[in-house]
Specification:
The protein has about 450 residues and is mostly helical. It is built from 17 helices and five strands. It has a three-stranded antiparallel sheet with strand order 1-5-4. About 40% of the residues are buried.
Amino acid sequence: MKDPIQETSFSGLIRRYVSASALLIGATVLALVFANLPATRELYAWLWQQPVSLSIGSFNVFSHGGHPLSLLDFINDFLMFFFFLSVGLEIKREVLCGELSSRQKALLPVIGACGGMLVPVIVFFCVCLGHPLMERGCAIPMATDIAFSLGVLSVFGKRVPLGLKVFLAALAVADDLGGIIVIAIFYSQGLAWPYLLGAAAVVCILLIGNKLDMRVKSFYMSLGLVLWYMVLNSGIHATIAGVVLAFCIPANLVNGTRYYAQRIRTLVNRYPEIDVTEADKNRAVVIDKNELQILRRIEKASDYLISPLQDIEDQLAMPINYSVIPLFAFANAGVDFSELSIMSLFHGVALGIFLGLLIGKFLGVLSFSWLSIRFGWCQMPEGANWHSFASVCMLCGIGFTVSMFIAALSYPAHLGQEAAEMLNEAKLGILCGTIASALAGCLMLNHTLPKQADA
């Protein structure tokens, strides 16, 4: 039997990601247009190199090693801090009370995610073996983009069993966690211990606040910005600060829901009933101080019904999905085709990423999942069969946001012209691999899913 509460929850999740994925596609297309039109190509490249400054005296908040961040760095290092904070909050929530909260729920998507990270790396290495600079990008095809993949899955509506939607969403979350670990371990360099110790001190304060049941969200967010600056200058990639902050934010309710729900009911009963006529609708309404106090107490009690973790995650959802990610796509997805030929996709970095996403992700997720089900460790998602399950595994090759992010870390500008060319090739591989996985997944789903949803 389907769980109506769970189904409603995932319907809302998918609707949110569908609209976010539409914006993501629009921003990507716009970036490709701006990066290739002769009239805008130079402007597009120039724009992202402009310095960003927020100075207090001689101190620039947006600086790294004494140098101001460029606009591209500001987006990738600062705005993406909030994206990774949102990802960290989602991972923590899923681990505590969601699809990763128990061994039975978590095992299949976690095992599938492990295969979906390992096999693409092997595929990439086989293509780029022997070239140290190319090999830096081996982690690029590891990622599954949750917005794009759930957006594609939503095209088939109720034809898709809820179990498959849950599996794909949980796998993408586990996949994000793997990507975060890779960024933290392999893309940190030249550690600056004074800043690292400062970051550790901030984390200790955050953990003490959590332990003392500090519920003020501004406490965590303001210290989180301090943590971001410390991590930015420590040699660890700044976005890791978002994940660390997420795991310091409380997820519990001090007195449970019943205490505050009862308090709200009591306060609502004390609020006087007011009849509003048609003529009253256009008149200004001024309530007395007693009524204002009751309303404020209701508002405060309502705040306590939502944990700081869930409240911050909810408040971040709209600006992340509708501003930060589209802006990131617009800044990073601009592939300059004038520097590429059609043959670029058939060798080197572009080919390694393309095959890693299209074939590596599919084979990795499907084979590891098959083995875990075959040996009795896990069960097939409810309502699915091997044909429909394999179709969803193909959608796991839809990599964009985190793949683009890792590509920028793999081939930074300071490594020279060859790295810049490889970054352009990496973007091409990501775009082509994502489109190919989406099209193949759609064809497979259309063939394997029932033609009409069960009533």
